[in-house]
Specification:
Elements lengths: L2 H23 L18 E7 L2 E11 L4 E8 L5 E9 L4 E8 L4 E9 L2 E5 L3 E2 L5 E10 L5 E8 L7 E10 L2
Length: 173
Amino acid sequence: MDIKKILLVFIAQFFLLASLSAQQTEAPCPCCEETYQQFNFWVGDWVVYSKGIMVGFNKINKIEGGCIIRENWKAVGSSYSGTSYNFYDKPAQKWKQVWIDNQGSVLELAGEFKDNQMILVGKEIKDVMGKLIQNRVTWTKNDDGTVRQLWEVSEDSGISFTEIFDGLYRKRK
């Protein structure tokens, strides 16, 4: 076989493989199902208020082909910041969040979207004083385009909860 024939065979095989590869990458979007869109109301560039006072900025965007919602929090008046990764765990049929901040804190939550609210609850953990607590965070999509984030803590295994943060997200202009 001469060099021209070898090159032609090689080029034909290359284009065949490239075509097959392109077909495989054009598969349906793995995170485009309706369930994966439930938390989209939180995506945006926000100014956050608590009790009428601006407390921070939060930029929430979708990454990794829309499979992850990433939060980037920056407090006003301090150097406190943090990031969370939010995703739908299809096998568990639960939404999950992992929060990590610049103080070394980690918070893991899981839950579901129900009645226009994303409600995520953590397992019981020890707080800085060694007391067992349970976190619950609820995001509510408001009719005016704002989002309410209510963070509560239980000291009695989830029987009752006490508010520790009530934030109102307004789109940044």
